[in-house]
Design goal:
0% strand; globular
C-alpha cells in the first residue's frame, strides 16, 4: 500500500496475485491456529500450507513441482510425525511410500496404454509428501478429492473455454487442495463415509 502497488526499485506494477496469495496464506494459517490450537500440529500445518501454496502457484506457471520444495516436504512430514502430530510414524512412512507408488503406477499404466506421459514426477513426490504428513489412511481421500476437482476444471476448460484436450493441465494444485481438505477435515470425512457404508 505504501508503494501504491508498484515496485520500489523499477516502478513496475506489482501483480495482484502476490497480495492475494499472502492474504490466502494468512487466512489459512489463522484457521490452522484456530483448528489445532497452540502446539506442534498448528505450527506444522502452517509450514505445510506455505509449501502447498508455493507449489500451487509454481505448478500453474511452469507445470513443474520443484524438488527443492517437494523433497524437504517429505522429510519434514516424517519428522513432524515422529511423535505423532497427525499420524503415527509408521503410518507416515507408509504414506510416503504408498503415495509415491500410487501415482507412479498410474503414470506407467497410462504411458504403456497410450505412449504418452499423463503426469510429471513431481506429482508422485507431492502425494508422497502428503502421505508423510497425514498418513497412508488419507491417501484415498486426497486422490479422490483432487481427481474430482481436476476433472471438473478440465471439463470446464474444454467446454467453456474451448481448450484443446492435448493442452496439459497441472495436477499439483488439485493434489494440494485435496491435501488441505484432508489436513483439516480428513478424519471427519473418512468417518462419515465409513458410516454411510455400514449396514
Amino acid at each position: 500500500m505504501l508503494l501504491r502497488g508498484k515496485c520500489r526499485a523499477c516502478g513496475a506494477v506489482i501483480s495482484a496475485r502476490y497480495p492475494a496469495i499472502e492474504a490466502l496464506s494468512g487466512i489459512l494459517c489463522g484457521f490452522a491456529a484456530y483448528h489445532f490450537g497452540f502446539g506442534l500440529a498448528a505450527t506444522g500445518a502452517m509450514l505445510l500450507i506455505w509449501a502447498l501454496l508455493a507449489l500451487t502457484a509454481i505448478d500453474f506457471d511452469t507445470q513443474l513441482l520443484p524438488d527443492d520444495i517437494t523433497q524437504p516436504l517429505i522429510w519434514s512430514g516424517l519428522l513432524v510425525n515422529f511423535n505423532g502430530a497427525y499420524a503415527s510414524l509408521s503410518d507416515a512412512l507408509l504414506g510416503a511410500v504408498f503415495g509415491y507408488l500410487a501415482l507412479w503406477t498410474v503414470y506407467w499404466l497410462f504411458k504403456l496404454a497410450t505412449g504418452r506421459e499423463g503426469m510429471g514426477y513431481g506429482d508422485f513426490k507431492l502425494l508422497a509428501a502428503l502421505g508423510a504428513w497425514l498418513g497412508w489412511q488419507m491417501l484415498p481421500l486426497i486422490i479422490m478429492l483432487s481427481s474430482v476437482v481436476g476433472a471438473m476444471v478440465g471439463i470446464t476448460l474444454i467446454v467453456a473455454f474451448k481448450q484443446g484436450r492435448n493442452i496439459p493441465i497441472p495436477f499439483g494444485p488439485y493434489l494440494a487442495g485435496g491435501g488441505l481438505i484432508a489436513l483439516f477435515w480428513g478424519q471427519a470425512l473418512t468417518q462419515s463415509y465409513l458410516q454411510m457404508l455400514a449396514p
